[in-house]
Specification:
With 377 residues, the protein is α/β, with parallel strands linked by helices. The strands form 3 sheets. It has a 7-stranded mixed sheet with strand order 2-3-4-1-5-6-7, with helices on both faces. Strands 8-9 form a two-stranded antiparallel ribbon. The N and C termini lie far apart (42 Å).
Amino acid sequence: MTSCVISALILISFLSSSKENGAQSTTLKQVVRNDIINQSSNNREAKIELINDHLLNKGKYPQHGDHVRDTESLPLRLCRVTTAGVKAPKTSINEPIGVPYQCAGPSYEYFSKKLISFISKASKYGKDPEHWGRRSLPMPPNSSILFFGNSHTRQVFQSFMCQYQNEIMNVTRLLGADSKGSGIWDVRLPKNVTVFGVFNVPHVYSERWMELLTLSMNRSVDSVQVIVLGKFNTFNDSVNTTFAQLMKNMTTGTDADFERIRPPDLNAIAQVYSGPIVSVSMFSAADIERYQTTLNDTADLREGGRTNIHPINGREYVQYIGECATDKSDSVGTCSKDFGSTKSRGKNGHRCVGSSGGHPDLIAWDIIEACYRLLGS
């Protein structure tokens, strides 16, 4: 019996055992964005002219412990996936974590040119060219991080781990929920860095989600140095979807109630976890309103003395690189603004990843920089 099956049985057994905001300041956006998100005043201003070959990691990244004087000379950490073309089976990369939503074709190539162009001018937009996308490790030594959310959070985690696939020492899937990578992951990197991933699990639909998560992770959530918090799907979000059926199957006969219990939001997490929280919105345009709520909640928490919460807008770069989404998870797709039966699906879909990387890379880099800042490294 595999560890995933054992973990699932423990979870179901444990669940079954006990069945049973005010007005905001008009300067809110300025306070949150200037004090938390943008740290351009401390960035080293530099004019960088980078050719595509350098940006696409043609160079060799140093081995662990190598001393590098100028990190700006290092190749960028992009999750690059070479495919056999549109409609081909997806490329197997960084298994068992994997990289779904792979793309190729003219639409993706057009998008990738805009992506590379934006990266080459990143300092213009307040990014530190010395570190953004170039860290030798995604976290400071002796630290841990928990990615916690839905499939959009999972996609950032998958690109995050793909960027550091050569540094991965061990991967354990503690709970498997689907073939796309949902469930619970425990990944070990050099210098005692641990990365946990918890995605689309039934735990969050129980009032005892913290207790259950600790059990499934074999580690107290309080002992994790940083939580990357995404969105959790609600019942109303998920009517007539495969996710709704999955949660129904996983919670039947337990005290978790997918239909009636709302999963924890930023405020709920902040009440039970005192460490740094990086709150990341989805790539989806449908999550814009919730991101504004996150900014409001962050400002309220800051007024109460909670200064270690950092919001990241998952759609911040769309204005520069455009939309590039696909629903294909098992075969290679191509990016499109609109596809499928829902006209706006392209704006709400998962992001394409291909030979030049993808939108998730940029969000992963922002998370990494936020972690180094919040942990004082």
